[in-house]
Every structure is written in C-alpha cells, then in structure tokens.
Amino acid sequence: MPNNTRSSQSVTMQIVMVVFPGFLLQDAAGPLQVFSMADQEAEKSGRGPRYRLRTVSTSGGLITSGCGLAVQTEVLPRPASLKSATLFVAGGDGTAIAMQDKRLIRWLQASAHHLARCGSICTGAFVLAQAGLLDGRCAVTHWQDAPLFQRLFPQVTMLDDAIYVRDGHFYTSAGVTTGIDLSLALVEADHDRALSLRVAKRMVVPFRRAGGQRQFSAALLAQGDDDQALQARLAQWLLPRLKQAISVADMAQAMSMSARTLHRHLITATGQSPARFLMRLRLERACQLMEAGKTPLKQLVRQTGFGSEYNLRRSLQQQLGVSPGDYLSRFGASRQRA
Fold first, then answer.
1. Which residues contact 117 (CB under 8 A, 6 or more apart)?
2. Per-residue pLDDT tens over the stretch 263-286
3. Range of the structural domain that residue 267 is part of
4. Do 182 and 81 fall within a single domain?
5. What pTM did the predictor assign?
6. Within a domain: residue 214?
C-alpha cells in the first residue's frame, strides 16, 4: 500500500479533464496518466503537491469516447470550486457538437478566471476558442485542423508548428499525444525536472521529444501513398543539399516533373508548397543542431541554408513563436543536462 503519511501536508491541486460524447480517449487518458504517475513518484520522496484527478462532463455519468470506450464522469462542478485548479478540454470527433453545448461554454467562461491553468488537448482548442477564452492569444491545435481553426477564429494567432503553447494562464497542445508533452512540462513546473523525467521514463515517452517544438516532421510525413512517396524522394534529395541555394525549378528537375506538377503533388500530400517544404526541412535541421548544442549559430545558419541569422530568427518566430535564444534555453543540450 502507498505511504500516505505526508498527504495531509501536501498541497492538493485539482486536475480537471472535460470530456464529451465522441472525445478522443488518448487526449484524456494520456495527460491524466502523467499526473497520476507524478503523484506516485512524488510520494516516493515524500513530496507534494498532490494531484486530485477529476473527469467531468455536462451531463455526468458514463460518456462514450470516439473509440467506443466509456468513462465515468462527474457533472460539471461549481466554477468557484475550481480555484487554483488546472483544467483541460479534450478533443475528438465530438468537438463540433461540444462547441454547440451552451451549458458547457457558459461554464468554461465562468470557470476560467478561477483557474490557475486552463488548457486544451488537440481539437479541444476549438471549444476554448468558442468560449472566447483564446481571443487575442496564441494557440495551437492538431495540424490537420489548424486551417479550419484559423478560418473560424481569426482573432486567435495559430502557431501550427508548436507542440504546445502557453499564453498567460492558457495552455493549448497540438495533436493527440502532445497532451503528454504539455503535462510533463506542467509536472516539471510543479515539482522539478528530475521528477518529470522519472515519469517520462516510466511511460516510455521522450522527456523532450526529438524535434523539440515541431509538431510533425516534413521528413516523417513522407510515408504512405504516391504523393507522399514523392515527398520522401524530395526530402531525400534535399537533406544533403540544405546549405545550397535551391529553387523550386531545381526541385522539380530533380523529381523529373514540372514545377506546377510538383506543387500540386506536395499540396495534396502535405498542404505545403515546395518552398515551404524546403523551409520546414531547413528549420528542422536547425532545431536539431541547436538541440545538440555543438554548432555555433553562424555555422548553423550556413549549414542549413538560411543565409543569415535574421532569416533563421524570422523563420523560428513565424513557425514556432520563439527566438533562437528562447529555443536554445528550452531545448538546448545545456538545458537538458541541467
């Protein structure tokens, strides 16, 4: 049996997961498991805070997820009872219906100012945005849903390449398993890096996933159908040549097709133009070098073909919402050894 002798001395922090019919099970289960294991690891060393995990819904009772597995939930608690709590809204196929749940939306609006942290997993960002909680803020959601999000909520700045985004006390994470990344970061903030790392090891997930903040890899997406097979060939041709000046015509010639045909195939496979695809590969390579911490910035710029530190800075800011210095301080090798 766990030793609870220090529980009364620990600070209890509510972790509230909001679900709805058709929610994505991983969106809810992944983050909750992180906090549950953090409790176990903290208890081993006699430390707090302790987490109180709650799963809530508009109706309460059994709520069926998108995969058919149902979970038991509490009815939405009084907003005032959520003082200093951390709240997440899960995503999933039921998000569109949840956005029309007026009771849920009003409850989120009333609860937000009581919360220490208010967040979303995957397409749960749509629900927060529907409640107006992300107006004027930066956010992220699943990369496939980012264009729709931008059309529906132009008042929110979408950082579609981020794993998770913090803006004030609002947190949004990208697709599905990125809720685990966000939760590990919050455990680190509540405890320390060592405890969060132990949780990551127990869950057999990266403490800092390879690629840092990038939500998906241009190279890894190059798997699957014919259009994606073309993407794989193009990535294979580009990667050894990133330091060179490369035009769309060069890429098309290497793939033995016209520039127009290359553009059409890449848009179909990835939603990216050839120029953007090249930029993404350069940015991924730059981030890998920054994470390794062995390449001076001027040399890094030359190796990745950005041409200048200004171009690298602008690309990082536009795609990830951070400067090179911010990225290095968060994901650089010296940070990981700390």
1. 85, 86, 87, 169, 170, 171, 186
2. 998 888 777 899 988 998 898 888
3. 226-337
4. yes
5. 0.66
6. no
